[in-house]
Design goal:
This protein is mostly beta strands. It is built from 9 helices and 43 strands. The model has no long low-confidence stretch (mean pLDDT 92). One of its GO terms (cellular component) is cytoplasm.
């Protein structure tokens, strides 16, 4: 229960005051006290509860139990819990006494009008035993937490508009309101009170940058009724006198949490007393609600797929057909970006990352557009942004964008527990350089955005040894029926050399890699024997293995993994300009659609009619209930330093876990 304000009583004339239901009012009786006063009594009408607080140590007692010795340390506290029917329909009477006089020395009367004012919203208290202990001024994480949630209204519900819904100050269609959070102002009390009192809805100039409030000043089923009343350049709004008990406001988020924005936005309603013409307005009471803007959340490859994206370019017809067949098997939608839109930019994984936002009343997907800005740069905004599909991007002010800012370098793990801490939405994985070294890193604005979301605490890996420099070149995650519910796949030169050594030992040293590759340019075959005798290749892959092992230890520590959670996938790399690229199609750079895996066809050595690399991968993954489909991406992707995962993208089901139930 919060303190309202101090009201001073007078012996010369009756005093009147406004109380807010359930809020304490201090009554000051010391301003004018009859000479000789030793004691006093306090009584009120039945609707008024009166307490005396003799001291902090003794607590409070009901005032009407006895006569009180006059002491300047006493506090008189008045509480009314029900709104008044009429002005001044309740009162408190104070009588001043002396032991030398049989009758009271004087009386003071305080007339009270009670009004009930509350600014409310959905505090998301499900599961809490007692909502009365919820403080609307706080926002508390965790399963026992509470607090209102605001969505960034970053979709485009009206297709006739050219921009996102939160980019202008209008409600263009009623569906737009579904993405907003409702804030309700409830008021009960005598209508005549508002002849000389007013209600002001307000926020700070800082908070006004992050949210916008609409008020229906007419029929709620008409878009034209909704006025922009708070947010941006508007920090206060005088609420018109209304006829009912409540007014509804609709609140939209304007920006995601970021380096300069914690995600918390506060709104207040203040009752102002304007009854005295000789003085300025004075505040009687303020109520506050706090919203947290919902974070953008990534989805790991272990979640069920809903929609697959792929680009159709000049030379990838068979690849697109194979992806389409895999999507059909997995039961998900396929969206093909045509060549006239992608202008032969096939790297749709690098262009965007598909995540979502969620509040108790609404969930919708949001595409994060990378700052790489290739020929696909318009696709997320022009083709994906739409009704209930949001859009966000971060662009650096300078020219600091590198290949690491493509979103093949942005992945997220499945849910994990590491170092005693739960990460129920997984952890974001981004690649950069070694600590303390100078090299490529993800641009600061993207890093700031990812860290500010708070619910998928990022882990930074070492990728600067790779020519392209993406985490998806050496790791991926697949679902599993046991253990932690997934396996992490790591590219492994050591596993590949071990496999090839076994095959050579059994007399298959002459088996050839790259046999059967069809493309515009001829590809030279190479035997297992040649690979195992190539000193430079072996030496370089020892270096690559050391880089992957460094990341392996980071991942084990930061994701709480053991060796049983990791599968080593045979893979070799070669050097180009002192950086690593895949020697044969990169097997971990795969498309994961539930139990169906679209894996780059490695064109490995054929032994007894079968590719030994494919056989090895099947033996590692199919016992987990996974189905391996090897897709030929050699000419349209591998020769350009990318693979299946680089050339596809997937929208997935959101987590069943609600982000507000975690503790960052």
């Amino acid at each position: 229960m919060s303190l309202q304000r101090i009201v001073r009583v007078s012996l010369e004339h009756a005093t009147s005051a406004v109380c807010v239901a359930g809020v304490e009012t201090l009554v000051d009786i010391y301003g004018s006290v009859p000479e000789g006063t030793e004691m006093f009594e306090v009584y009120g009408t039945p609707s008024v509860d009166i307490y005396i607080s003799p001291s902090v140590e003794r607590g409070r007692e009901r005032a009407d139990t006895r006569r009180w010795h006059f002491d300047t340390g006493l506090e008189i506290i008045v509480v009314m819990n029900s709104p008044s029917n009429d002005l001044n329909d309740s009162h408190v009477q104070i009588s001043y006494h002396s032991s030398r006089e049989p009758l009271p020395l004087a009386y003071a009367v305080l007339y009270l009008t009670c009004v009930d004012i509350a600014l409310d919203c959905d505090l998301n208290c499900e599961g809490r035993q007692n909502r009365s202990f919820v403080d609307k001024r706080d926002w508390v994480w965790g399963p026992g937490g509470y607090g209102a949630i605001l969505l960034v209204n970053c979709d485009r519900d009206d297709l006739n508009c050219n921009d996102q819904d939160n980019r202008d100050r209008h409600v263009h269609c009623l569906q737009d309101l579904e993405d907003m959070s409702v804030m309700v102002l409830r008021t009960q009390g005598p209508a005549a009170l508002f002849d000389d009192h007013k209600l002001i809805l307000h926020t700070s100039s800082y908070d006004a940058k992050w949210a916008r409030v609409f008020h229906a000043c007419g029929p709620e089923d008409s878009c034209k009724s909704y006025r922009h009343v708070l947010g941006q350049d508007k920090v206060s709004y005088e609420v018109p006198r209304f006829h009912g008990d409540e007014e509804r406001f609709f609140v939209e988020g304007l920006s995601f949490p970021d380096a300069s924005f914690t995600g918390l936005v506060s709104f207040h309603v203040t009752l102002l007393d304007d009854s005295n013409e000789d003085f300025s307005e004075s505040p009687v009471f303020t109520d506050t609600v706090v919203f947290r803007v919902a974070p953008w959340i990534m989805t790991p490859s272990t979640l069920p797929p809903l929609e697959v994206y792929v680009c159709r370019v000049r030379n990838n017809t068979c690849f697109v057909d194979a992806v389409a067949e895999l999507a059909t098997k997995a039961g998900c939608k396929l969206t093909i970006c045509p060549q006239n839109e992608n202008r032969n930019d096939r790297w749709i994984q690098d262009e965007m990352e598909l995540g979502y936002v969620q509040a108790p009343h609404k969930t919708f997907p949001v595409v994060f557009d990378s700052p790489r800005n290739g020929e696909l740069q318009d696709f997320p905004y022009k083709r994906i942004l739409g009704p209930d599909f949001g859009y966000v991007t971060r662009e650096p002010q300078d020219s600091s964008v590198s290949g690491l800012d493509s979103f093949g370098n942005l992945e997220v793990s499945p849910p994990v527990v590491a170092n005693g801490k739960e990460y129920p939405l997984g952890r974001i994985l981004i690649g950069g350089n070694l600590p303390g070294s100078s090299g490529r890193r993800v641009t600061q604005v993207v890093r700031d955005f990812l860290y500010a979301q708070r619910v998928q605490s990022p882990v930074e890996l070492f990728v600067d040894w790779l020519a392209v420099g993406h985490v998806d070149e050496f790791l991926s995650f697949v679902p599993a029926p046991d253990g932690k519910g997934f396996r992490m796949l790591l590219a492994s030169p050591s596993a590949c050399f071990k496999l090839f050594q076994e095959k050579q030992k059994w007399g298959h040293g002459g088996a050839l890699l790259f046999k059967g590759v069809v493309g515009d340019k001829p590809v030279n075959t190479v035997s297992i024997r040649q690979v195992l005798s190539n000193v430079n290749l072996i030496s370089y892959n020892k270096f690559v293995q050391s880089c992957i092992d460094w990341n392996r230890e980071v991942l084990k520590r930061e994701l709480g993994l053991t060796e049983r959670d990791i599968i080593d996938i045979p893979q070799l790399f070669k050097t180009e300009r002192r950086k690593a690229v895949a020697f044969f199609p990169d097997l971990v750079n795969m498309l994961v659609l539930g139990k169906h895996l679209g894996i780059p066809k490695p064109f490995g050595p054929i032994i007894n009619g079968h590719c030994c690399l494919e056989e090895k991968v099947r033996s590692l993954l199919e016992p987990l209930g996974l189905h391996c489909t090897f897709i030929d991406d050699f000419t349209p992707y591998h020769m350009l330093h990318g693979e299946v995962h680089c050339g596809t993208n997937v929208r997935r089901q959101p987590f069943s876990f609600k982000w507000w139930n975690m503790v960052p």
